[in-house]
């Protein structure tokens, strides 16, 4: 029986380990400069990172920020200006990119597997945590949310983004006896992976339930994509994805 090696799967999506290549890409503007706050106008609420940026902006500045599933730093780098100190963790080691982030931008990233260990940080270490399209990939959702709550200071915020299984289009697909696709919609026959290696499905109510169990309260939910403003009026039905801002209310 074949087993799924998560680390190998995600490393395969980032083929370059060359520090010089990453440096060239950063300098070429593939990521915006991190030594200034990126203007809100450069982020669109129509994209996933943009809506997270907008939600964080109203609560900035932060003491320390953690991006879970940081990849090559394509989000933790743009939001560096919001925080005095920036950290990232990812299951896939990307030493080339992380070396550039550390040496040129002061952002510290390290490898971490949520399903094998707690986050390598003390309690109350961060004032903001982001987790963009990651929670659906971990085996133990309760452990992941408990760890987010543990490393957040009381009053700190977490912005978490997941696909929404209760999206109207997906409800109709289920009624028609079809399997909804919550990842790459071009792979409807699951030939590349099983729904992008998503292990869990979420609704807004299920997110509220799991965060509440760990002393966190969801204060805001928004959606991205076309007609993002309209979608955000009824996110549980109209949002293909849910982006929630949860505050740690209990120590």
Largest sheet: 7 strands, mixed
Instruction: Give the strand line-up of the largest sheet.
Output: 3-2-1-4-5-7-6
- Radius of gyration, in Å, reads 18 Å
- Based on secondary structure, the structural category is alpha/beta
Hey, roughly how much beta strand do the residues contain?
Answer: 15-25%
Give the mean pLDDT: 82
Apparent shape: globular
How far do the termini sit from each other? 44 Å
Give the SSE string.
HHHEEHEEHEHHEHHE
Uncertain runs are 6-17, 29-41
Helix content: 25-40%
Number of strands: 7
**DSSP summary: helix tally:** 9
Ordered list of secondary-structure elements with their pairings:
Elements lengths: L5 H6 L7 H9 L20 H10 L4 E7 L14 E8 L4 H11 L2 E4 L14 E7 L8 H11 E12 L4 H8 L28 H10 L2 E7 L5 H4 L3 H4 L2 E8 L3
Parallel strand pairs: 1-2, 1-4, 2-3, 4-5
Antiparallel strand pairs: 5-7, 6-7
Helix pairs in contact: 2-4
Structure description:
The chain has 251 residues and is of the alpha/beta class. The protein is built from nine helices and seven strands; from the N terminus they run H-H-H-E-E-H-E-E-H-E-H-H-E-H-H-E. It has a seven-stranded mixed β-sheet, with helices on both faces. The radius of gyration is 18 Å and the shape is globular.
